[in-house]
Amino acid sequence: MAIPAEINERRVKDASDRDADLARRILAVPRLYASLTDEQAQALRTAMTESRARRHDLKRGEDWQAARKTIRDDQSRKLEAVFGPEKFKRYIEVSELDRGDR
Question: Does some domain include residue 10?
Fold first, then answer.
């Protein structure tokens, strides 16, 4: 049975969009992290480690989405103070690209 042309075209476009998004993320991440100072890189590692621990400590029955948003917002505030406006903006862009996969 042949796949209708419009469905096949949509599949090709979807695959192309995913490939373009992946390429954008791959290019964005090294440029951001390569530009961090040692202090900024350590602050990023610390913030991510703390946030991960807090996510793992979430209790059953909590408003999971709200709790994760609070954790993300706290992490962002810490990083904004260390990164400065330009690097923080780039960090947010990279983070949003990464979250888009989920």
Answer: no
Could you tell me if 83 and 91 are in contact, meaning their C-beta atoms sit under 8 angstroms apart?
yes
Question: Do the domain assignments include residue 77?
Answer: yes
Domain span holding position 87 = 23-99
CB 32 within 8 A of CB 91: yes
Residue pLDDT, tens place only, 64-75: 888 888 998 999
At CA 17, angle to CA 12 and CA 23, rounded to 5?
125
How many Cα neighbours within 13 Å face the side chain of 35? 12
Euclidean distance between CA atoms 77 and 19, whole angstroms: 32
The pTM of the full predicted model, rounded to 2 decimals, is 0.61
